[in-house]
## 1
Amino acid sequence: MAFGASPAVAESQIGLYGGWNGSFDSDIHLSQPNGTNMTLNDVPWDGTDGLNEIFLGGQYRWLHERWTPCVGFGVGVSFPHVEVRRTGPNNSYTLEYQLDGVAVEGLVGLEYHLSLRFSLFGDYKLSFSSSDAELNGGGSLETDVWTNHVTFGASYRFGAAPEPYQSYQ
């Protein structure tokens, strides 16, 4: 019995891309030490920053002559920049990054090869983050955030071209 293998192919890619993201409105549950808990409904997140996520994931690509669709999934953690200022006798202020929740993402994308070296691409990703932040002075803040991400751009490959791309000029 004989086994064969093709040689490894080294390829690099550089690209220019842009995009847009936006989050759905969500509820915020605020628990306070003195029992004056509250829920803020349908809080808009547009124009805010501070929701940070790190993912470990995978992506599967179907290599075709010109079109390359892909899907991906990842799981990770969220570490938002928590900013809460309370007034009154406690008068506490929370202004810090916290590692406080799980995050997951799914994506679909498509790449079109203009030539062996140049291509255009776009993808859509939906991410979910569940946060449970501890507040200075006691209490907590809980929320779940869903975010849409759209990315598009162009890329250039250099190095060896993989076999599926060899058939067009």
## 2
Amino acid sequence: MTDTASTDTLAIVLTDSTSGPQNDSLRTSVLAENGSVSENSSNWIPYAVGIGILILVGAAVAAMAYRVAQKRQDEKRREENVFDEVFDDVNNADKAKVLLKELKTKLHPDRFVSSDTAVMEAAQKIFQELNESKYSFSELQRIKEKAVDQGLISE
């Protein structure tokens, strides 16, 4: 058996490429085991670039989908928090009545008539907030803290 008749051999043939865009270079033709000829040994580069681009686009799409899902979860949490506040206010209605009565007696503007005008105006403003928020226990607690911070009432 001769080497030329064997199909297991790999032959590299250098040819002069005078026709085409690369007139000055030599092309390498590779004869593989199955008999196919590869004109250019760098045919895989465009495929690799294409696969790389697909991976980048897929990663970008996945990141955008993740951000959208996070946004939806945040909106859902906010809605749940609003409902929790509403239910807390409904459940604390009795507490709100007691706290409102206590704050109205302590913060009534008539109690601050002999005080400085700035203190009297602050008491009137807080009393007005009391009347606007009389059903919300959490708002009443906030108003009480504000009055304590301003020195209108003691804890």
## 3
Amino acid sequence: MNFDLKLLLKVGVGLALAITAYLVAGYFLKGVIKPEDLLNFVKDSGPWAPIVFIGLFIFSPGIPASALAIASGAIFGLWTGYLYSMIGALLAMIPPFWFSRLLGRKLLNRLLSMVGGSIEGNVEKFQQNVEKHGWRYIAFTRLIPLFPFSLLNLVFGLTRIGFWTYLVTSFFFVMPALFAFVYIGHAGANAADGGSGWLYVKVFAALGSLILLALLPQIVRFVKNRWGRK
């Protein structure tokens, strides 16, 4: 089987440059973009707003997924915002996974160090948990909103989990927290426009659901300790 070394070298250099640009852009956007800037930018896009929003979700790893989901609820409304957030989240899970899988741990960590990041100390633990629990560990990390969305996309690519298992599990189990964030943005926008007092109750209910998701490991541990011994 013959290989064109020049072509492979060009592809490799192009891939490395694309990934570097992706990571640098994420770091830059994280430092300079404020939530209100994000809202205004998407709103000013007119009929292109959905495409611009989904593009930000995919190509702006430095912007937290929670901030994007909240913005979608404020801009597009509850269900339309949730739909765009789900599409954006699904597509955003793909490039980082394959970037890290193609680059490998050492080269990826070298590129991340250029923008002040690192994955050292995370991969081994993730690999052990993925091998032990499989898709359940992906579900666990996606369900709890404390785990950074973009970092998980990178780290799971360095494990031996199958792509479709990763993608399908991630998509379904990120949906509850995503909905809560979109609802917060939607209700907050309505409250700012002079909505009823019930909106504040709904916002606190959404925040409460996020807190419950964040505390899920402690709740499970308590239940096991309390009733598992019987």
